Amino acid sequence: MRGSVEFVVSTMRATPNWAFAQVEPQRAGGGAIDLKQTGFRDEADMMDGLTVFALVSFQGGRWHLVDHVVGPTDVAYAGWSERYGVPAKLLGLEE
User: Fold this and answer.
1) How far is CA 69 from each of CA 10, 16, 29, 53, 92, rounded to the nearest angstrom?
2) pLDDT tens-digit profile of 56-66?
């Protein structure tokens, strides 16, 4: 099933060069998206919804997607600090 999607931002943290976001996808106007009607239908039983966690970097005057996960059942972004050199605080992994 295809259609318009909008994202509701649950969490957004940023530094001058990095940003981390947690967003909830929904249909335009607020309608729910049925996970089993998406490209994730085969993985739906192993996912915890459609929550998206994303890491972006600011380079060359633009924001670029570095990594993202959809519907993880664990803290799938826990290794991003070490892998990409972003502050753990940006990811909410330390105070």
Assistant:
1) 15, 22, 24, 5, 16
2) 999 999 999 99
What is the pTM (predicted TM-score) of this model? 0.88
Alpha carbons 31 and 72: distance in angstroms, whole number: 22
Instruction: Please give the Cα distance from 52 to 50 (Å, whole number).
Output: 6
CA 16 to mean position of chain CA atoms: 19
Residues 6/28, Cβ–Cβ less than 8 Å: yes
Report the Cα–Cα distance between both ends of the chain, in Å, rounded.
Answer: 40
**CB count, 10 Å around CB of 36?**
11
pLDDT in tens, 65-80: 999 999 999 999 999 9
- The vertex-5 CA angle with 38 and 90, nearest 5°, equals 100
